[in-house]
Amino acid sequence: MTSFTNKNILNLLRNLPRLSISNLRNNDGAVKKNKRGRAQHGGDKHGHGNKGSKARQNFMRPGYETGNTPFYMKFPREQYYKDHHVKRQYPPLSLATLQKMIDLNRIDITKPIDLSVLCNTGLYNINPEDKHFGVNLVDEGADNFKAKINIEVQWTSESTIAAIERNGGVITTSFFDVNSLFILINPKKFFQRGEAIPRRMIPPEDAILYYSSAANRGYLADPEKISWERFVLAQKYGYKLPKIEDDPDYNMLVSRKDQRQIFYGLEPGWVVNLKDKVILKPTDPQLKEFYKS
After folding, report:
1. So where are the chain's domains?
2. Is-contact 211 219, C-beta < 8 A?
3. C-alpha–C-alpha distance, residues 175 and 133, integer Å
4. Residues 235-272: pLDDT tens digits?
């Protein structure tokens, strides 16, 4: 048997933890956890209360099954609003409003029209932070639309395409990623930062088919197929398709952006200096190859 001296006891007291609420414990088995009883010992109501209509199982709400999981919640269901917060949105712009902008000289139809021109009018705005990915040109006011334009939108319908091409115009559906949208809707703010114009990204997997379709006038579609679809649409809607080749505004009507281009007339990699009013272009062959890829 080990004998404790005064010196050993003092060393033991120095090393032992101090008594506090944090290290107080009951002995093993001293406390027993109460279980839910049955009948007169508790829990005999099964969620129906003590007296009245609830105890007699009258006037219960539909689907209530005495505290158990209801039948309609035991099986999977289709979530109608699933992932709605991440879906791309395209705020609409009607042809009637577009014609009004043209009549008020807020848009110059002698030049190509894109999202930057529409936002610069002050009558149309988008917010990429709210999942806005561009303009949806709708056919409201198609019968009164008379302008001949070259317009680039992000979403449209067949009737809208027919209304524009009937007047000898051209429409293109083009995709812009979020970074390119911020640059396009406010070019001045971007140019003041003194950064090089980035490349436009390609569409995501769920949008590549739309922007590759000639029927949708996608910017990734084959130009020869687009010419054929223009003829097919004219036959369907019963109008004579004007010949763009004989139009005096031919150069304006056939003007299109490159797949990597954000602005008309400005290539990726260029730096726009607003203070000196000059454009700086890359000279390094590797940079040129990077921005063209």
Report:
1. 85-265
2. yes
3. 8
4. 999 999 998 988 999 999 999 999 999 999 999 999 99
Beta bridge partners of 235: none
Q: What phi and psi, each to the nearest 5 degrees, are found at residue 242?
A: -65, 145
pTM: predicted TM-score of the whole model, two decimal places: 0.71
Please, are residues 93 and 85 in contact by the beta-carbon 8 Å criterion? no
- Whole-number average pLDDT of the chain: 87
| Stretches in the chain below the pLDDT threshold 70 | 1-4, 33-49, 53-54, 57-60, 63, 66-67
CATH 3.50.50.60 fits 85-265, yes or no: no
